[in-house]
Specification:
Layout lengths: L11 H12 L3 E5 L5 E5 H17 L7 E5 L4 H12 L3 E4 L6 H11 L1 E6 L4 H7 L8 E4 L16 E2 H5 L16 E6 L9 E5 H12 L11 E4 L6 H4 L1 H8 L2 E4 L6 H10 L4 E4 L1 H14 L8 E4 L6 H10 L3 E7 L6 E4 L4 H4 L3 H8 L4 E2 L4 E5 L14 E6 L17 E2 L5 E11 L5 E6 L4 E3 L2 E3 L1 H9 L4 E11 L3 E10 L7 H8 L11 E4 L13 H7 L9
Parallel strand pairs: 1-11, 3-4, 3-5, 4-8, 5-6, 6-7, 10-11, 10-12, 12-13, 13-14, 25-26
Antiparallel strand pairs: 1-2, 8-9, 14-15, 15-16, 17-18, 18-20, 19-20, 20-21, 22-23, 24-25
The chain binds adenosine-5'-diphosphate (ADP).
Length: about 550
């Protein structure tokens, strides 16, 4: 017997329709590439996203064709999120931090038909456009009078001219909820990048899951600042969850430095902000230097890389801001786990609570996870056993775009497919998962594993250390031994021996790195993560002391 409930497809267009109808006057504030602050509302975003829809129909792009963006977080990008996906085309968010060659490769691989870009990326577009013959339409996200006369890009249109004068009426199509809505390429640290192709259904379910109180806890009373870029896994799905709950959104545009982010948080009464640790480091640095406090910020979601304990402590204790340590992947839309404490843990001492907060957290409903050994056998949830982390759920990929890389899933005895995350983790009895490493970064010393994250966290707790990366170096006896590569804070001093002495008593002796290498900078990838492969190449002539 079937249930007798309305069967409505889960569509991205329903999010913007809801936000307009129920939260039409709630503000969307953006710092623009031009430098000024622009104010819009969910109502205006909805009307303009329908103009985008009409404009796309005018270009005669078929359903399923890809429309790319090369843009910062801002209102026009948000209009494209809803306008492109709502019509049944696929929004392809490009990462502007990629090398032009790689960018052109991705545009061609995705077979993008149109590309909309912020004016700050004009030089990048000028460098790649002739290498992207499949792109027929180039749109600059600016007013008509900001369009350069001699751009060298054939048929370049200004966004405002393109959508201006179009009807604000549009009937969103009743698509199959499983049809593709957007796509994002992983950074491809090994081999060519591969794309996750999201669907309307996966996006809507993720929007519900992410908004839950024990996940990101989004509500209509929030003012949310996604510092995490809209070109990286849809800003962790925040634009969709925000439309579902009708909160205010605040977009930082290109200004991600501590001063600009702080000013926006204060002036727009931001209650929740989300970003990677490197961004928060800039913000905290600025605040410490200038003796500043937050007046409205209550929560900050930190993910993308492990959040060091010093950062959690600074937010919690110095600034009264709760850190939600979160973990996810491009292949997971991206949310997998969020670290929100259970009632029993709230009664723990601050030190014991910090130990829990350091973990990447509990699975959001919709995501199942397990850890397995090399033979694929499930390992116990005791907080000690560590193994490959596998996940499954309706917002996790089954395969990559164009079947690239074959079937990525691993099948259990019941034939259920699990996605291997490439992370190594423990899970404790309360279901809190902790990443020990990416499997390719784990250091194997004398048959034992050393977590590079643990080694880095201790170095980061030293007041003179700005950034630390732990990598394994070949060792004749132990196979590999860890070294820590360190960037010092400006004006601060620490010697090799002082830093190694700092490890004493904080970790097992054999887990203390063999050496410290001081560098001016650690290479960061397009999504702000430390590039250990590049670092290893840079240190290829390095020899361990005594090796
Ligand atoms: P890429 O870096 O290839 O673009 P993603 O941005 O999807 O890929 O990154 C996913 C990976 O980032 C995870 O598999 C994990 O290794 C790492 N990661 C994400 N969040 C955290 C976190 N909170 N702690 C530690 N590692 C994290």
């Amino acid at each position: 017997m079937l249930g007798q409930m309305q069967n409505q497809p889960l569509l991205i267009s329903s999010l913007i329709t809801h936000a307009e109808r129920h939260h039409g006057s709630t503000e969307i504030v953006s710092r623009r590439v031009e430098g000024d602050i622009h104010r819009s509302t969910w109502g205006q975003i909805a009307r303009r996203s329908r103009q985008v829809a009409n404009a796309l129909d005018g270009l005669q792009l078929a359903h399923g064709e890809r429309v790319a963006t090369l843009a910062w977080n801002g209102y026009r990008h948000l209009e494209l999120y809803f306008g492109v996906s709502g019509t049944g085309r696929v929004l392809h968010t490009l990462n502007p931090r990629l090398h032009p060659e790689q960018l052109a490769w991705i545009v061609n691989h995705a077979d993008d038909r149109a590309l909309c870009f912020d004016m700050s990326f004009l030089p990048l577009v000028q460098a790649v456009h002739s290498k992207c013959p499949g792109v027929r339409h180039w749109v600059a996200l600016c007013d008509a009078d900001k369009l350069p006369t001699e751009s060298g890009i054939p048929g370049l249109m200004s966004y405002e001219t393109w959508i201006g004068g179009r009807s604000e009426t549009y009937v969103w199509p009743e698509l199959d909820e499983n049809s593709a809505s957007s796509m994002c390429y992983t950074s491809g640290t090994t081999g060519n990048p591969k794309a996750a192709l999201y669907s309307h259904r996966s996006t809507l379910l993720h929007a519900y899951g992410a908004a839950l109180p024990d996940a990101l806890g989004c509500s209509a009373r929030d003012s949310i600042l996604p510092v995490v870029p809209m070109f990286h896994v849809n800003a962790w799905g925040l634009p969709y969850s925000a439309a579902a709950v009708g909160c205010k959104l605040v977009f930082p545009g290109p200004a991600l430095d501590g001063k600009s982010v702080y000013e926006l948080i204060e002036s727009e009464k931001v209650s929740m902000a989300a970003g990677v640790p490197t961004v928060w480091q800039m913000l905290l640095g600025h605040m410490q230097q200038n003796g500043l406090k937050f007046s409205t910020l209550r929560r900050t979601v930190i993910g993308g890389s492990a959040c060091p304990p010093t950062m959690i402590n600074a937010f919690n204790h110095t600034y009264g801001v709760e850190v939600l340590h979160a973990w996810g992947m491009t292949e997971m839309s991206p949310l997998g786990t969020v670290c929100t404490l259970k009632s029993a843990q709230l009664a723990l001492s601050p030190e014991a609570q910090l130990k829990v907060r350091l973990k990447q957290g509990r699975a959001v409903f919709g995501v199942d996870m397990k850890i397995v050994d090399e033979a694929g056998h499930e390992l116990p949830w005791d907080g000690k056993a560590y193994g490959d982390l596998l996940v499954r759920g309706p917002w996790i990929i089954t395969s990559y775009f164009k079947g690239e890389g074959g079937d990525p899933l691993r099948y259990d005895a019941n034939g259920k497919g699990w996605f291997p995350t490439g992370d190594v983790a423990t899970i404790d009895a309360d279901g809190f998962m902790q990443i020990t490493d990416r499997s390719k970064d784990v250091i194997k010393s004398g048959g034992e594993w050393i977590s590079s994250i643990d080694v880095e966290n201790i170095a980061m707790a030293h007041p003179a250390v700005a950034m630390a990366a732990c990598i394994g170096m070949k060792h004749p006896k132990w196979d590999e031994r860890p070294i820590v590569v360190v960037v010092k804070k400006p004006g601060a001093e620490v010697s090799r021996d002082e830093l190694l002495a700092f490890y004493e008593g904080k970790t097992a002796k054999w887990q203390i790195p063999d050496d410290v290498v001081f560098v001016d900078a650690i290479p960061l990838g397009a999504t702000g993560k430390m590039q250990k492969m590049t670092l290893r190449q840079q240190l290829k002539d390095y020899v361990l002391p005594g090796a």
